[in-house]
Automatic annotation (TrEMBL):
Keywords: Ribonucleoprotein, Ribosomal protein, RNA-binding, rRNA-binding
Tagged with keyword Ribonucleoprotein: yes
Family matches, as NCBIfam families: rplV_bact
PANTHER family per record: CHLOROPLAST 50S RIBOSOMAL PROTEIN L22-RELATED, LARGE RIBOSOMAL SUBUNIT PROTEIN UL22M
Gene Ontology annotations of biological process type: translation
Domain of life: Bacteria
Protein name (database record): Large ribosomal subunit protein uL22
């Protein structure tokens, strides 16, 4: 690794120490389906987002709910206090594509159709409203 690359990697690591986030990797649903759920809660207050996810009929919402609870716990761990109602917000959430498994499905006349079983990675950031105001 070159010197400049190493320095920028160390800066990125230091910046992540001040952020409160949780990651979920290799989720076996397509990124498109997961983005629908991510768009529902982006920018919401965490207690409201948990309610939306709990009563959503989408299968991906259960996974995102668990991820959000993990991000809240990470925030509480780093700040050494409990999160109060209306304090934390989902600042950023993004869904990236993961590995794609390629499978074959039997098709008529001896052919085979390719099936792509997609997966994704979800990263969710939470933060309090007053820290967001200071940064902007």
């Amino acid at each position: 690794m070159g010197a400049r690359k190493k320095i920028s990697a160390e800066k990125r690591k230091e910046a992540l120490k001040t952020m409160y986030f949780a990651k979920l990797q290799n989720v076996p649903t397509s990124p498109r389906k997961m983005r629908l759920v991510a768009d529902m809660i982006r920018g919401m207050e965490v207690n409201r987002a948990l309610g939306v996810l709990k009563f959503s009929s989408k299968e991906a919402s259960a996974r995102v709910e668990k991820l959000l609870r993990s991000a809240i716990a990470n925030w509480e761990q780093k700040n050494e206090r409990k999160a109060e109602s209306g304090e934390l917000f989902v600042t950023k959430i993004y869904v990236d594509g993961g590995a794609t498994l390629k499978r074959m499905r039997p098709a008529p006349q001896g052919r085979g159709y390719r099936i792509r079983k997609r997966s994704n990675h979800v990263t969710l950031f939470v933060d309090s409203k007053n820290t967001n105001d200071n940064q902007n």
